[in-house]
Records
---
Amino acid sequence: MRMDAGKSYWFVFYKDRLLLELHDGKYYVPCTSAPPVPVPAGSTVQTIGIWNDYECRTYNVYTPVNGAEAPQRIMEGLRATYDLLPLRAYKWAGKASQILNWDANTQYCPHCGEPTHQISPIGKKCPVCRQEFYPVISPAMIVRITREDQILLVHARNFKSDYYGLIAGFLEPGESLEECVYREVMEETRLRIKNLKYFGSQTWPYPSGIMIGYTAEYDSGELMLQNTELSKGGWFNRDQLPAIPQKLSLARKLIDNWLEG
């Protein structure tokens, strides 16, 4: 593989906002030989891989980039970059965000409190008790449940807008992914399901997870929503859908797949 040692892709974050540059009406991740903005004291530059023959690097800044000083630059929330960047660039940005989150949370050994040493791009080690620390990915399942020509859609209380999504939840210790699906469906809806099938997965860097998608069919039970988790929900026909998730999510892919028949 040919590499241009003089340039790197720079994924620069202020909190969850990514630095982008505007050229000819399109947004890009900066690709320059030097950091596009100064690396502040206390911020570590992490190398996260190779893309298009260039190294990908990432670091945090502690104040947002001032667009008044550089009008061709903006800082945009990571989720919003899905609509601004090519898919591959968005995925690299997600990886960069996860690495920075891991770096921030592993500065000290949780067992003895000693500062950790970085031993690889995704590895740290405690020099005293010798424990090693790698990025922790939190798995969560999501399931599309259908009943004849209807789909079950719910509105979770933590949704920031009024869209409806699918039943989802995090994997607990001691259970398989399939057991997690059955448990979450029962806890949140009191329904029994059948014909559970794997659909696909998606990295979910908010801040560091992976979504595993399934499809299932209604088997039995009366819908009773878990009040602490869900504010509303029900069975919907194709021509009477409420607002649904944006295209970037696995939930939307599952719903679109059903809409396409």
---
Amino acid sequence: MQKWRWDRFFEAFPYIWDGLRVTVEFTLLGSLVAYTLGLLFAVLRRLRIPVVDQILWAFIEFVRSTPLLVQIFVLYWLVRPELLSGLPTDVQRLVVGVTALGVHYACYTSEVYRAGIEAVPQAQWEAARALNLPRTRTWTDVVLPQAIPRVLPALGNYTIAMFKEVPLLSAIVVLDMVYQVKTEYAADIGGAGPEAWLAVGLTFFALSYPCSLLVRKLAQRVGTL
């Protein structure tokens, strides 16, 4: 068995730091897409527009039932050459990665939003109709201000989950923490052993766990509203 080397453990952190910025960047951009698109999906499904509702339901179920890694490959090898061929390679990977993360998690956040919307008391909808509020104002002034605070903890959990799935993008050469250790560190040190992967795991834990505690406190706060 290979002897544990603490020097290799600590040598991994500069490479991890180089990839951390990329990991956080993809997480934030992917979350923005997921939150926005998920809310759009939820509102459209609530409106129950014929055909549109059925298409959305089928799309959401398809995305939720297929692996994220497969979706990344489909976007990268089939969609990217057709739509993004004129852009720099780094930009192509950014667009593919953010789109894959955002769309995948939008299909989950849409159900979260839907639960929050359905939790708004029926009396609120009836009051808006009694006041003859336009549909847009009903959503922006009555429904969403009550629904969105209820779902913030669940959205936070999905952001944490997305952060931990960004390493899947290393398969298309996104320079996140995993890619940096698997490629750059391994090339310089002569292979990425367990020391380096433990360092990666501890970095994810050090960032994810405090965030999960904050989400838990937020959930308690929301529960008291």
---
Amino acid sequence: MSVSTPTLITFLIYIAAMILIGFIAYRATKNFSDYILGGRSLGSFVTALSAGASDMSGWLLMGLPGAIFVAGLSESWIAIGLIIGAWLNWLFVAGRLRVHTEHNHNALTLPGYFSHRFEDESRMLRIFSALVILVFFTIYCASGVVAGARLFESTFGMPYEYALWVGAAATILYVFIGGFLAVSWTDTVQATLMIFALLITPVFVILA
């Protein structure tokens, strides 16, 4: 499969921009709190777009259309259920968790928050919650890497195994360099691209 020069140039610019954002975030990171939570300084706009891109990128643009194409409109319940769940989470959990983590020794992670909140001296609660996060976020991150690899494979004719390594390497690089700020800022850029894609693609499909 041949790749057009504009497509290749656009892709390379995109990867370079993500890594550049990682370096900018690195310069803005002064301590461990900045690296883990961005110093709790992110505004609502970046937070919302970042959370949306992290939660909805792979399944919204690839998984959901594929499921509806294969099984029909009944699969739209996937989107309905996830939208309701996300809304309830923001409504009842997010705000309270933001306040209580700061009041409980300025906990930077959920295991740390649970440990301080329930005064767990044995550290079993911290270990168990960390294991739950490790297991389920491994699956979650793997699905994102697979989605990216499938995109590279279909767009550039790249072998799937190589595409996995390219996507994972770019992501790991900017996360290691810039931490939470890099993730949030790159997710904001990606969310903006997703919004334009979701609005423009149906128009071009109808015109075609």
---
Amino acid sequence: MAGVIVLLAACGGGGGSGGGAGFLPIVAPAQPQPEPAPPVVVTHTVGGTVTGLTGSLVLQNNAGDDLKLTADGKFTFTTALVEGAAYEVSVRTQPLWQFCTVSKGSGKAAADVGDVAVACSAVQAQVSTFAGSGTTGSVDGNGTAASFYLPYSVVVGKSGGLLVSDVGTNLVRKISPAGDVSIFAGGGAGGGSGDGNGTAASFAGLAGLVLDATGNAYATEFNGNRIRKITPAADVTTFAGNGNSSSLDGHGTSATFNAPASVATDAAGNLYVTELFGAVIRKITPAGDVTTLAGSGALGFADGTGSAASFNMAYGIAVDAGGTVYVADGGNNRIRKITPGGVVTTLAGSGQAGAADGAGNSASFHQPSGLTVDSDGIIYVADTGNSLLRKITPAGVVSTIAGQPGVLGAQNGIGTAATFKQPYGVTVDAAGNLYVADTFNNLIRKVTPVRRP
């Protein structure tokens, strides 16, 4: 019986009469009710298309939803939005040497969004003078109050400071991020390959420089045929080579080099050295074991593996994040590429002296010397014979970013309004700024990416 059941209870004497009666209500258990159905939540994705991208780009949708892109094409953010929620797509990190804009990037998600458009284009190169008066010398000071004598190689450290090999004086110069120039190592009495601290050390034909991950610098001695090590405290020692001019493999000072011109390092701490006269590319392990990575030992041009390849006056060298080695093969007017296994190919350059932009062998160089590679795999080349600064994509597409072909000068400005005088060295910092050893101007130039008007 549903509802309330009434129970008669009697108390007291007989005969059915008594002292009173009461009613006790008893409630039946409630019947379970069905659970209400959960509301249906409708979500939508947000995405679109990116065009013109040659580096790496980070987009953001609202706060905290980041998406890294490295190529043209469709994209979709990972986090879906509740129907009706607002979205706003913006560029969080621009690619190096590009500027990207977003259109149709905001609204409310009434359905899946797929029409966000991101367009990327190249920026311009703003060239300025970072340090050096232009006169020959070795005066310390800030910015243009300092002087250099044929700066050849320039490298940037994690703090943003620079090291420069000043080959006319055999000095390693240090430049702070604020532009304060001082002598870091070199200048010791007697010259030659003298070990010691700071100015007590000396170099014989100072040339290339590189910094490893721990802040140690390594320098090549073009005349001394040695690889020198310089600690952050400026203690200079001989790391490899005994001074003899040949290309003998071995450990430390049992190995020999023949006019080592430039040096680079990979993520594992291995060094790679170009030999200008030896016509080979050498590899040195962190333990000091020297081997030959590629090159026949005779001046020439040939792609191939190991000793089947040939180089002609190889100057600059750089290594990307994956361990691929790039060489500015100056005498062949080409940029060469070497795999970790020693396979040599030509990335760009026809072999003819020229200043043509284009892809692969449709481009031309004139005695390319220094080169560097950024975190996106873009290669920057000091095209010495043309007095130009060039850029090469990982696919081998070459473009000119600053300078006028064959026009010598020290003019600051944007793109072709700027001029150089046979620059030999170039390096890139984490923000994409370039620093150029403008050798025959005795200047250190800074090249900053700026948006096109």
